[in-house]
Design brief:
alpha+beta, paralog of FGE (formylglycine-generating enzyme), four-stranded antiparallel β-sheet, 6 helices, about 30% helix, about 15% strand
């Protein structure tokens, strides 16, 4: 009888131990599945495309400039002196070809124009693109801050104080409602600005990293400002093929919710040293 009881106990303990091991194994598998979901699934992208993207950056030497415009809209005032550190910025907005190579498909309303800037991308979409690109390359790409964008658009230390990015005549440097034919155009067809940057006037609105606040300039944040700590909308700059001249000025500001997307909105990259 004692032998039977011992045998029964041994069998029961063995089954309990096996059940614990099975449960631990199942939990481990669940954790593994969750961690895989959290990872960015990296596409297969040609090194040639990544190299060509990296080659299209211009170094912007840091310096001082007047941000805003006393003669502009209310949210461009007061104009005040800002200091920005040096950074690299792309000569062009991100194109449909580049977007499709990194993200595998294009959301554009104007498909079929590989060298046109990508459109129909929200601020969140742009961040996803950048995260994927950084994982692929190991580099530090980002959206420009509003101050970096305006400094570059105005020509940095080479600025000539022009109304648009590279000229006082918008026809020379930008696609806007008066000449676009109501659609975007391949990047680089208009003249560049003083730094060799194209399409910072018109073609597509460009997302900036900052939250928007119409009264932000009143704070006079002068050293590498990054915008308010929070907000209801993000900044876009530069105007588009769909906007009037006044919205294409280098100091003009625009804001929309960060999940907003339309056929006149894209973005441009900056790069920081690792």
């Amino acid at each position: 009888m004692k032998l039977i009881i011992r045998y029964t106990l041994i069998v029961a303990i063995s089954f309990a131990f096996i059940n614990v091991l099975v449960a631990q194994d199942a939990a481990g598998k669940k954790k593994k599945k969750k961690s895989k979901k959290a990872e960015i699934e990296l596409p297969s992208v040609s090194q040639e495309l990544l190299d060509s993207l990296a080659a299209n950056f211009v170094w912007v030497t840091g310096g001082k400039f007047m941000m805003g415009d006393y003669a502009g809209e209310a949210d461009e005032k007061p104009a005040y002196e800002v200091v920005v550190d040096g950074f690299a910025i792309s000569k062009y907005p991100v194109t449909q070809r580049q977007w499709t190579a990194i993200m595998s498909s294009s959301p554009s309303e104007f498909k079929g124009c590989d060298q046109c800037p990508i459109d129909m991308v929200s601020w969140d979409d742009a961040q996803h693109f950048i995260e994927t690109l950084n994982e692929l390359t190991g580099k530090k790409y980002a959206l420009p801050t509003e101050a970096e964008w305006e400094y570059a658009a105005k020509g940095g230390l080479k600025s000539q104080g022009l109304r648009y990015s590279g000229a006082d005549n918008i026809e020379a440097v930008g696609w806007y409602t008066g000449n676009s034919g109501r659609h975007p155009h391949p990047v680089g067809e208009k003249a560049p600005n003083e730094l060799g940057l194209y399409d910072m006037t018109g073609n597509v609105w460009e997302w900036c990293r900052d939250w928007y606040n119409k009264n932000y300039y009143e704070l006079r944040e002068s050293n590498n400002p990054t915008g308010p700590a929070s907000g209801a909308a993000r900044v876009r700059r530069g105007g588009s093929w769909f906007t009037q001249e006044v919205s294409c000025r280098t100091s003009s500001r625009n804001s929309v919710k960060q999940d907003y997307k339309d056929d006149s909105g894209g973005f441009r990259l900056v790069q920081y040293p690792n």
